[in-house]
């Protein structure tokens, strides 16, 4: 151990004493009862220092581990219970110090220290002193890093002036005040010393006080005599002594411009601003510095002022839109608000004078309050001159004059296409041979909206081109421009029309296609409702895509591969006004899909859903064309036949004379033979069926028929068993068998020998009998084939009539049993006119062949 | 002390919420560990509450309402003193600001404890809780060893947050079942203050509300 005297005035001259003698201490005894000790406690070192840490354990067998901020340290064991750790270039970690701790295996006991590592004290930088009022010096510096720790305060700063020998402890880390001596001390020599627990650092500064004057900001900035174009600015400065002159800098900001003036000032400053704009706010600011020995500018002092209003300097830019409604002209006047420079103040209202040029005595006056930018006028078909003026609180603007002619003079002007760009539309037009006072380009910012937002641009008479740009222009919107010339009489007349897109976009919609005239080979597509004007680009035509399974494309189309790799045929229509297309060369009964999409210079419409269609077969239309008329004709004939049935009947199959009305009856009556009567077929009851077995081959002759032996099937009781009241008259098909008639009063039905009993039994029932009769009847209508067994009926009628032909028999047969018969009428030879036997049989056959029957 | 809420349930709810907030270690313990460099393996496990430093949860639940409030007030008074002592180990201004905010919260909580004590039956004269006996002080004598003091501070704050968690649970029991726990029931206080009830204007206001069991 040794000691030294600490002298602040002469820190370099420290004298150390001699070292004391060594003392030996028994650590184990001096530490007390704790099992573990770590040293040194709370040591303070500078960053980058080398430090040695050690621990002493009471038990040498303890396995002790030591850590620096959680990282285990490797130490050097000096003795069984003493280990040291050498830390080199320790780093600053935190203001609360670095934790170093040791603990044994058990982990229940922990001992440690906090090593306080301080940042290295830096030399103050940018040390400077100045005065604003020559009474106080303000010294500032950059202190650098703070070396404050939990165990150490931040570094302190002291200011020492060597000429006066004064010293002050600064209260702040980066600045300090120094009172200037009342005597006129001009030179100052300062030493600034930074100091902490470990180190001292000093800097020096020598200066002349008058050269370090930093004036305070000017004050009392005022504006006087402010007119429309002029204003005077005055200000005051803080006194810095009687012998100092200040240089002041004045800046004026207005309308985006800056003007600067330098003024030499002792007490008060003044500056005149001229050439100002009316009704304009300006911002003026001033700062000052020592004119003799410039050190620093003062802070700015700024103030705003506004010039007075003046009458509007320009006439409003006026345009019109004229519509004819029911013999009147609806004139919508538009005007643009005057710019700030033109208005020279706040526009309060617009005056409109409407002067009838056809009747000079008639004029109308309107006042429209601002900020309106238009009005609507209902005028007759006369010509009018309209004056528009803008008014502010001071005066009136020049008038803007426009003529609305009674004759609209809308001549047809062909529309041209223009190509727009991001910067707008570049429009040009032909110069007019006559005198024009200017041109106006008119368009709508929102052509698709209900209010088109009419815009216009006026150019001079020598200009024949302009670029129209607007923030409202959107890609894919068609804009229409009209270029008017303004005559010397101020009458606008249409010169040219132009239309275009600022940027063309691919068509977004496909037309709604209607298919018609579908045949097996073709169909027709039409999209009449598709409007090409409302598309996002100029439509140049259409593509018709046709998908088919065959995949072959005919002439007029080309193969195309769609985005989904589908192959189809593409037809191209070059005329955007052509809105129908016939798809031909199709296959019958085939499936097709088609799509119609418009195309423009930037692409075609979306490839949306295809429409499906299947062609019909080739013959169906023909059949329909043939069958329908045929059916119609047949129906027509049937209707005619029905309507003319009576006529047809008379012509084709006249009524068979009624035997009751026959002259034969009169003949019978004249003979008064009660036994003779006319047979009513309804009164017949079949009693037997003759079955004829014809030989295969040719038809038998009449004579052979007569000689054949028919077989009879008795359906009714024979004469012996039947006790019917009246005699029977028998008939036979095909031939009239007189013999049979004679041999038996009731005829027998010849029965085929090989007829099965079942069939016979069936025939015995009335129903089966009717069927059999019906069948036989049907067969009798046609040609009987050779060798076929046929049935010939021999009806034996038990006549119920005894005298009165309308009276019913006592046991009448079923009327149905007598139906469906072909009958022959047998007239007794004695009563009828006697023909020859052969002819008699022949005539009977003929009658049957005509199919006479009763129902 | 400012004016008190005279509605028992509202005051109880406020105490519950305050306790719930103050139990969060992000208010004190976490910033302390961060600023002192104790967030290292091998150190964190030594930052545990010393047994007996604060009353346990069971001990708190076993107290009557009056005793509970007294214990709570006394313990928090110790905590305030200990937090003041902790300032010397916290150099950074933002950490000191955290410490000061926590102290203000504790003072506000203590104020509400006093208000609650006044609402308990028979409390008209004993509004100032008395300190508890030895063994409940959470502030052992600070040592000069910075490292040991740092660990002690950490343990103290750990115990503080645990203690406030227990306090919040006890207050919740008050709200859930005022008559479930005989010890926490205001019956005890009611019986004690029966003779004084007619003298206490606050107690007269308390009874008609029906918030306390009869």
Chart the SSEs and their pairings.
The complex is a heterodimer of chains A (855) and B (214).
Chain A: H1 27-30, E1 36-39, E2 44-46, E3 51-57, E4 65-68, E5 71-72, E6 76-79, E7 82-87, E8 98-103, E9 110-118, E10 125-131, E11 136-142, E12 156-161, E13 166-169, E14 175-179, E15 187-195, E16 200-208, E17 219-224, E18 231-236, E19 246-254, E20 257-265, E21 268-273, E22 281-290, E23 301-306, E24 318-325, E25 328-335, H2 340-343, E26 347-356, E27 363-369, E28 374-379, E29 384-392, E30 400-404, E31 415-421, E32 424-428, E33 436-444, E34 454-459, E35 465-468, E36 478-487, E37 492-501, E38 514-516, E39 523-526, E40 539-548, E41 557-561, E42 567-573, E43 580-583, E44 591-600, E45 603-604, E46 611-614, H3 620-643, H4 645-652, H5 663-671, E47 688-693, H6 702-707, E48 711-714, E49 728-732, H7 738-743, H8 757-764, H9 766-781, E50 789-798, H10 837-849
Parallel strand pairs in A: 2-9, 31-37
Antiparallel strand pairs in A: 1-3, 3-7, 4-5, 4-8, 6-7, 8-9, 10-11, 11-14, 12-13, 12-15, 15-16, 17-18, 18-21, 19-20, 19-22, 22-23, 24-25, 25-28, 26-27, 26-29, 29-30, 31-32, 32-35, 33-34, 33-36, 36-37, 38-39, 39-43, 40-42, 40-44, 41-42, 44-45, 44-46, 47-48, 47-50, 49-50
Chain B: H1 8-22, H2 29-36, H3 57-61, H4 65-86, H5 93-119, H6 146-176, H7 187-192, H8 201-209
Describe this structure in words.
The complex is a heterodimer of chains A (855) and B (214). By secondary structure, chain A is mostly beta strands. Among the domains of chain A are: 36-118, Sandwich (Immunoglobulin-like); 125-211, Immunoglobulin-like, CATH 2.60.40; 219-307, Sandwich (Immunoglobulin-like); 318-501, Immunoglobulins (Immunoglobulin-like); 513-620, Immunoglobulin-like (Sandwich), CATH 2.60.40. Helices cover 11% and strands 38% of the residues of chain A. Chain A contains ten helices and 50 strands. A seven-stranded mixed beta sheet of chain A has the order 34-33-36-37-31-32-35, with no helix packed on it. In chain A, strands 40, 41, 42, 44, 45 and 46 form a six-stranded antiparallel beta sheet that branches. In chain A, a hairpin with a 2-residue loop joins strand 6 (76-79) and strand 7. The N and C termini of chain A lie far apart (164 Å). Chain B has a domain at 8-123 and 146-176: Up-down Bundle (Growth Hormone, Chain: A). Chain B has eight helices and no strands. Chain B has helices at 8-22, 29-36, 57-61, 65-86, 93-119, 146-176, 187-192, 201-209. Chain B is elongated and about 50 Å long. In chain B, 34% of the residues are buried. Chain A binds chain B through residues 38, 41-42, 67, 69-70, 93-99, 101, 103, 107, 110-114, 148-151, and chain B through 35-38, 40-43, 45-46, 89-92, 145-148, 150-151. Chain A: Belongs to the type I cytokine receptor family. Type 2 subfamily. Chain A: Residues 832-855 are annotated as: Disordered. Chain A: Its main location: membrane. Chain A: Residues 832-844 have a biased composition (Low complexity).
